[in-house]
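Notebook B, p. 112. Complex prediction, attempt 2.
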Amino acid sequence: MSKLTIREIARLAEVSVSTVSRVINDMPDVNAKTRERVNSLIDEHGYVPNASARTLKQNQTNIICIIVKGIHNPFFAPIVENIQQEIVKTKYIPVVHYIDESSDEVGAASQLLIEKKAVGLVFLGGNPTSKARAVSKFKVPCVLSTMTQRSQELKNVSSVCVDDFKAAGSAVRYLTDRGHRSIAILGGRRMDRDLVWNRYNGAVKAMEEKGFSFDEENYLESKFSLEDSYRATGEALASDAHRFTAIFAMSDIMAIGAMKAIHDAGLNVPGDISVIGFDGIRIGQYFDPSLTTVRQPYEEIAVRSTKLLVDNIEGRDTGRNIVLDTLIIEGDSVRSV
Amino acid sequence: MSKLTIREIARLAEVSVSTVSRVINDMPDVNAKTRERVNSLIDEHGYVPNASARTLKQNQTNIICIIVKGIHNPFFAPIVENIQQEIVKTKYIPVVHYIDESSDEVGAASQLLIEKKAVGLVFLGGNPTSKARAVSKFKVPCVLSTMTQRSQELKNVSSVCVDDFKAAGSAVRYLTDRGHRSIAILGGRRMDRDLVWNRYNGAVKAMEEKGFSFDEENYLESKFSLEDSYRATGEALASDAHRFTAIFAMSDIMAIGAMKAIHDAGLNVPGDISVIGFDGIRIGQYFDPSLTTVRQPYEEIAVRSTKLLVDNIEGRDTGRNIVLDTLIIEGDSVRSV
DNA sequence: ATGAAAGCGCTAACAA
DNA sequence: TTGTTAGCGCTTTCAT
């Protein structure tokens, strides 16, 4: 059996390679009968065009790279899955690439762009906008999923996210409305990530609006992981300074780490300390007490991210920032005081 | 700036394209000085060879596809991450592809193989061996990670997994050693997946060795998800028939679903019913009670899978089946009766 | 040790 | 509507 190329199909169909090419690419100017004949030959022999040859010629692919920083967060899993599903519905091909929490996503992105000749990028986790100059050089459309874009000038960069400032405010108000006055914040390094900064400020603002100020002693800095939030919370509880009745955690896995630390310190959730999380991961509802949290609409984030990116790629739109609403899921991890 | 091709580098270095090609591909027959000059030009201009052209010419890539079926199981996340990390240490490029729990992984695989011209495949989840004929046609080496291979004849297929039969037996003995006599099994559809079948039989055998038989009424069939195991356990508890003091769940997420169902039925873990899981996912230790489980050595699974696959690809080895040991992690979800 | 040149499979401009 | 043909950037054989 000779190799199955466009030539071979052309020979069998008794047409030229250009005609076959036209059929493959759904060009209009092909006789209906010819098209049918060619198509049936293609099906019959299971011919698949050589992507490398096409890419070489056109110098571009249909690949959209999804760059995920921080696979450990279960919040990302359904988003990645949904984005992939959305992409395969289009003519594009998704390629997922995980990178280490500590490595440089912009560097990884340029590598992928050059190597794979991707036509678009989705970023999940990390904050590429902080490296704005490098990203803008990419020229291909990018969408930041669940991230706020700081620089408005980058016309190739879009974003889809919730209003972190507002959502953090509503989480804190959920606590203050139930009588909590001394609230700890369990979050990442501020300034480092826009997202952390926004949630921090939203939380503090909500407290101040209720007429009391945030005590910096009560900022528990931690990585976005079970282990580190467990550590951070445990240390806070061990210190004499701790004087809070509730914790606002910037992600559900942090909240889960905190609950464990509280439990291991001989205290009770929510009896002694209430906990509210952020993200709305499924497994949070399986804890005892079930986790009260701020749910991010991840299906919608996935759908909107993909649509925005594809529109960008196809020139129907340019950099835009979509902000979605959150919803508080009431669990049993918060009590009134 | 003209496009950066091998020609351009050749022009700048005042050598021919073949010489540059030799340098790029680390061929021995290049004058040291020439090589150095070419290399510095490459670095200076940031030249990256066009992968499509190379692939077109050589008709093969460096891509290894990782096909993951069932992203929802958090057990897979660290394995995927580790496998990816291992692959990038080699000269190969990992490409992750998620497919739906209900879709056909073999079909997806052949698509990827043809489209991406992958030189190797890693399967996670699902059971491609059941479609042995199709897989053997692939011709490229495949490794089944965390799966047992049934057909020994497929020389291009290797596997890395634990001994499911034995591991399930040790889980059940952990329960019987603590006095449990009536044990339910929470698992998937038997016969459908080898893995389920092996764990089922290992569990039943362990019971029989202790002198009592397994009551088929106590097989709680469920999908590998939080929701469905919650449902299955809840239904079992609601029925009059339920007469078990412990549950062996075939995965941690099933165990977590079960614990929630027990709790919501007004019962206590482990007070009323003990639970033991399977996998050893991190978050299991954050539950209250912390989950007792059979840990699969996922770092080692990743390392061995990758090594085996690369050895296969490079012809240093052929289809082999590696079996690794498990370890019971003692949590608080099992009590003695 | 180096160069010249053929061609991998495809697309698209041009011709018919 | 269809065919002819020139390359896309690279590897590799064959000369030199």
